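Input record, target 12 of the design panel.
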């Protein structure tokens, strides 16, 4: 059964650990992440970008697949299915499709419009028992064609959005999606501390978890981050393991071309990455 992310993130913030949001792209991805969360006895959030949702033929397909997998794999840890960087229309599609959590990314709107749309979606999501994440200050890098420079959020704007009743908040603190460039300045802990001061008990979200040094991750968790998003790292691990399998000619041995065999090393690499992150975030045995 899917659950909203509200309770798991409240517990994480109180317990000074973070729950990982691992983005899913297909069946292998979903199966590997669910199996690892169960093995580590950790709550988990499955993130779906609008691009990935479209790739998997639609949000309805994704929701049905995830629900069926939880049942067939006997998954007992809390699992939330969450729309990542959702548009206004995308949020409504996911509510209808049976997701248990949504993110409305209104960071590219003027703050007034972001507030107005977020307020409406909070009301709808909560009436349906879903959790909702909002964003202030765009996250750098590229996410589904949206390119942000990684500016830092204005703590007062964060408070304006937090006061609308969102369940968790993504505030830009110099983090970016994808690989971090060599000249990256690191996270702005001053911004994070100021946002935390204005938003109180609200769990904060760190996007672009790939490539942030472990000490910075731990410091961010100590300053109120309760959810960390990981996507690129799983993709890189999957690609490297698949490349190795083919370069070693294993797809030409016996029935090595069978997609179940061909994709197995990649799936194992995703599991190893998720395991490592769950340990770093401190969510193991917190289910």
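The sequence produced for target 12 reads:
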């Amino acid at each position: 059964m899917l659950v909203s992310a509200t309770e798991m993130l409240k517990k994480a913030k109180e317990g000074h650990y973070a729950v990982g949001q691992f983005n899913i792209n297909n069946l292998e991805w979903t199966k590997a992440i669910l199996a690892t969360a169960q093995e580590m006895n950790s709550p988990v959030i499955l993130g779906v970008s609008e691009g990935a949702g479209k790739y998997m033929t639609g949000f309805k397909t994704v929701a049905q697949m995830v629900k069926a997998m939880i049942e067939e794999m006997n998954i007992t840890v809390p699992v939330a299915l969450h729309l990542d960087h959702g548009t206004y229309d995308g949020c409504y599609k996911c509510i209808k499709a049976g997701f248990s959590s949504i993110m409305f990314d209104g960071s590219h709107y003027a703050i007034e419009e972001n507030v107005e749309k977020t307020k409406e979606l909070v009301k709808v999501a909560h009436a349906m028992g879903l959790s909702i994440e909002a964003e202030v200050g765009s996250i750098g890098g590229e996410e589904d064609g949206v390119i942000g420079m990684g500016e830092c959020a204005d703590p007062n704007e964060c408070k304006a959005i937090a006061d609308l009743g969102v369940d968790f908040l993504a505030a830009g603190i110099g983090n970016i999606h994808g690989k971090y460039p060599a000249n990256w300045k690191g996270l702005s802990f001053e911004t994070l501390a100021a946002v935390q001061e204005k938003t109180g008990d609200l769990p904060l979200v760190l996007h672009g978890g790939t490539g942030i040094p472990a000490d910075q991750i731990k410091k961010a968790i100590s300053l109120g981050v309760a959810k960390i998003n990981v996507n690129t790292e799983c993709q890189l691990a999957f690609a490297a393991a698949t490349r190795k399998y083919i370069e070693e000619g294993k797809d030409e041995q016996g029935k090595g071309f069978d997609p179940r065999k061909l994709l197995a090393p990649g799936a194992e690499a995703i599991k190893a990455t998720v395991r490592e992150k769950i340990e770093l975030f401190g969510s193991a045995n917190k289910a």
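The first strand starts at residue 19 and ends at 23.
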